[in-house]
Each structure stands twice: as structure tokens, then as C-alpha cells.
Amino acid sequence: MDLSSKILGVVTLLYVCLFFLHLVYFATKKEKALKAVWLLLYVTFGLHTIGLAARWIESYSLGYGHAPLSNYYESLIFFSWCIALILIIMRKKLNAPIITMCAGLAALFFIGYASLSPSVDRRIQPLIPALQSNWLHVHVFTCFIAYAAFAVSFLCGLLYLFRGRGIIPSGERLEEINYQSVMVGFPMLSAGILTGAVWAHYAWGAYWAWDPKETWSLITWIVYALYLHARFARGWKGTKIAVLSIIGFASVIFTYFGVNFVLSGLHSYGAS
Amino acid sequence: MLVLSFIAASCVLGTLVKQQAPPEEYLAQFSESTYAILRFLRLTDVFHAPWFLLLIGLFVINLVFCTIDRLSRFLKSAREKKLPNEKTLSAMSQAFLLSGTRVEEVARLFKGYRRAGVYDNGQVLEKGGISRYGVYVIHGSIIVILAGSLIGLLVGFQGYLTLAKGQTSDVAARRGAMQAAIPLGFAIRCDDFKVDFYPNGEPKNYMSRIAIIDHGQLVKEAEVRVNHPLSYKGTSIYQASYGSNPVFRLSVAGKEVQLTQGGVYRGDGLTLMAVRFEKSVHNFGPGVQIAYMEGTETKTTWLLRDVPAMREKEIVGLPVRLDDINEDFFTGLEIAHDPGVWVVWAGFALILFGLFVNFYLYYRRIYLLQTPTGVLVAGTSPRNKDAFKQEFEKWRERLNGPK
Hints:
The complex is a heterodimer. Chain A has helices spanning 3-28, 31-61, 72-89, 97-116, 135-160, 171-203, 212-232, 238-261. Chain A is mainly alpha-helical.
């Protein structure tokens, strides 16, 4: 086994530890445990970053030399990394440990699925010509940060349905976090779509071709645009907004996974 | 909002049914009557259907009017920067009283804030005012982007072109068969084509050496690679794909014969046709399927280049040997002309600016009211209550500090 896989294996274990540390916090309610949670998250994220970097370096030693953003396995690992990153970015706003726990579990799920599922090819593969572009980095980065932010928004929406019970914070708190994460995700998704369009112009000859991935990212964008308008122009609150953020994330999931496996198109790189 | 939901719904339809495929493909998937319905509703080409364009038109009209309406209301309210009375201010969630000081002194301490209104009994300060215009920039740039794409739709074109080495063409084919070719106004000649492969056989890169000939004059020579198009007179030439035309070198009864795919050889009472080329026949390397006439019957057989026993066969009593297969690569170029693309780029830049201003900056307002005992400081931020609360706490500490 190569170094990057070993590191990512350790990272997976650390995400498991993160979950148990959250449980310790909920059981003891000690501030120290919460501090330890964040410390562990920083360490895990740091090691996760090193794992990605190691894979990048290994691709050079294989003679391919590309960022680990090129196939399904790498996208899952990267998605997991983005979830951890968004938690760190939004730390000040995320004063609800239940959300860091659930998001940490999501990160664990994606990295675990990537590392263990027999249907995921984990080899470093060469980069096909269309993907050999610097637009790859900025396009994938913006899109996945947006997906991760929407994942947080989704968790808030889902938890909202059980608001105020036990360790779940109040409805207003969840609504505010939900909104803050869409504030991060929406501009990022827009930037992702735009960089994708510019890249498509240079790689495929048209900035918009109604490719299923493009179309679904537009659908996702429209759903979150509706979310923002419903909140500001119509003053929607509570359950309606929570449901919209759940619909929005369902659309994200379909854009990410559904399009790869159900529909075919120019974006089919991610499926193998 | 309703229109936007409809657009989203039609986009979903547009991805569920495969778009712009040939009729045969639909008939394989759906029954004939279902296909007729799909065709009638233009569900086979949603994004170019009149009703979809109509929906976008409605959306634009909606967007323009909503934005103008909102902007006019906003401008009216933005001009009014009244200082609320003491009761309203102390009821705000962010408010505190600084005793024994004057409004002017406190106002000077609020660095980074702009004086939006000065009154006898107090002042209104604001910061991040630009963020309130972000939403209009975003809405405006969506219209710019759509206008740019309309220009592309009206005067642009998109086609493709396949050229073998040495071939020249001054027209591009349109996607979707049965449509007239597009004259380019100049000619493109393919001087060379190269593919590099990874060790595992996947293509690493492919590139064409292209010459542009305008009115009989060679005006430009360049290399076109994937992701690196060439532009001439507003028309862009992209490396999109490649393919190969195999040429089979056979010897039929000692005579050398060259056949392309589908090519027929007649001689010595023998009729041969190269029917099919396979890069790898059951992992035994490249081969060609030959069809021949035996009496009145048509028969076929495979000749494999790399398997000695399968290289030479006796066909109707004559020895036929496959000496080699030359693959002549041809290049597939995508040709696009879109004068609207710069408008779209401008729209993109504008929308990114608008998004940044709207989502990463925020507007807040501070009210300072002179009261008999001191200065009442109150503040609001409609969009980012959390961050403002933190900021306001800092102001409270700083202003109270010296005492």
C-alpha cells in the first residue's frame, strides 16, 4: 500500500474518533471535551490535507502528474476534505456540536465509502486530455466547497424538524446556521458553474451545452436561488425553509452522484 | 418565482429524456405513440423548444420588473435616514447608553463608518452600503448573460469538421443531420495530426497542425490541442476528437492490394471486400473481416495481423495474406463562432462581483442619539445578525473601556 492510502486510512480512523469525542461531550457536557473536538478536527483536517498532497506527489512519480481531483474515488476523498474545511471556516457560526458531529459523520461516510467500497477504483489513473487544464482545480474546488456548505445547510434543515429536543438546538439557531451556510454555498456554486462554463468554452467549444451535469447544477442553483428569495422577498421561515434546504441538497446529491450513474454526458469522468 | 420553478422543472425533463438523439434511438426506448407525444411537446429537444424560450423570455420580463420595482422602493427608503426616537432605539436588540458624552465625540470613534445623516439630536452612521446594491448587480448581470447567449444564438454557429492529413475544407457540418453545411469564409487545412498515449493505452494528448487559408493566402499556422483552441476572425477551432481510417495492405495471389474499409477488390475471378476493422480481435491484435463470394454465396472470414496462423488464408483457392494495417488518423475539429461570448464573460465578471458584494459584505447602521444623560448607541444589520452582534459587542467594550 502506498503512503497516501495509509495516511487516508489513519484519517478515516480519526473521523471515527471525532464521532466518539462528540459523544463524550454530549455525555459530560464539559467545555474541555468540546475544545478537544475542535483540536481533533484540526488535526484530522491537517492529516487529510497531507494525504491528498501525498497522492498528488505519487501521481507525479507514476508519470501522470495531476491533482487528486480526477475520478470518483478522488472526488469522494476531496468532498470529505471540503466538509471538514467548511466546518473550520464556519467555526464561529457553528456553535452547535450536533452539526459538527453529523457533518463529521458525513465526512467519515464519504471517505469510508471511497476507501472500502469494492465498486470504487482507487488507482491513480492518467488524466484524459480534456481534463488537463488549470481550470480543473478552481472549478472542482468551488463546486465541492459549495456542496459541503449545502451539506451543512441540509443537516440544519433536517435537524430543524426535530428542533429543541435533547441535544438539538433551537429552531432559530438552526435557521441562522442554515442561512449562513447557504450564504457560503450559493456564491461558491455560482463561481463553480461560471468557471465550468469558461472551461467548457476552451475545452468543448461552447460555454453551455445543456449537458446533464450542467443542467442539474443549474437546477440546484435555481433551488437555492428560490431559497434565498423565499427567505428575503417572501419572508419564509421555519419548516418551509428547512424543506427547501432538504430539496436543495437532494438536487446536489443528484448533480454529484445521480448524473454520473443515471445519465450520460460529457461530465462522465467522475463515474469511474 | 413561479417562472423560475417552471424553468427548473423543464430542466429536469430535459435531462430525463435524452436530447437531440436520432429518432431510431427514441423508438428503441419508447413506443411509437409515446415518441409522437415527446416530439409534439418538443421533449426531445427541450432547451431549443419555443415554449422553453418563451419561459426564459417570461423570466427575463419578470426579473426586470421585479428588480426595477424593488430598486425604486429601495432608493426611496435609502434616502430616508431618519433617526428613530429614544423608545424605538432602546428597544433594539443592540443598544446601550454611554453616559456623559456627546454625539460628535462618539461618532468620531466609529472608524470605517460613513455619516449618512446628521441631525440636531444625533447622527446616523452606516457601513457596507455597497452590499445593498449587490442584488441589483446580480440581477442585472443575469440579463447581460442571457443577452450574450441570445447574440450567440442569433448570429453564432457551431459545427464540426473532420480532416485527414493534407485535407482542406472551407465548410463545417452542423450537428443534427440533414442540415446545410456552414461556410466558414476561410479554409482550414490539416497539415499533421499526432496522438500521444499513456503506457496503459489511453490517449494522453492529441493535437493537429492547422493552416488557415484566407482567399488563397496562407495566413496562419498553429497547433490546436485539447483545451487550447485557435481563434481566427472570431471563429474558434477546437481539437474535439480523432478517429482513424484503416488501410489494409493485402497480397492476393502474390499481388499487392490496398483496401480501405468498405473497399472492394475484383480480380483473378475473386471478389473481396474489407468489411470491418477491429483494433483487437479477442485480444489477438488488430484484424479485418473479409467478405467474399463463393459461387452465389457470400461468406466472411477474419484475417489477423499478429497471429501467423490467421494471417494468411485460402479464399476460393487463392492465397490471401494480410501484410499490414496502416491507421490513417483524421482529426475532429469543433468550429464555433460566437460573438456573444464576450458579453457573457462580462456578465460573469459582473455577477461574481455582485455575489461577492452581496454575500461577503454586509450592511449595518448605527444610530447615535443625544439624550439628557448621554448618548444612546443602537445598531441594526438586517442580513448578518450574528456577525453584527459580535462587532457591536466590541464597540460596546471599546466605548465603555476608558471608564
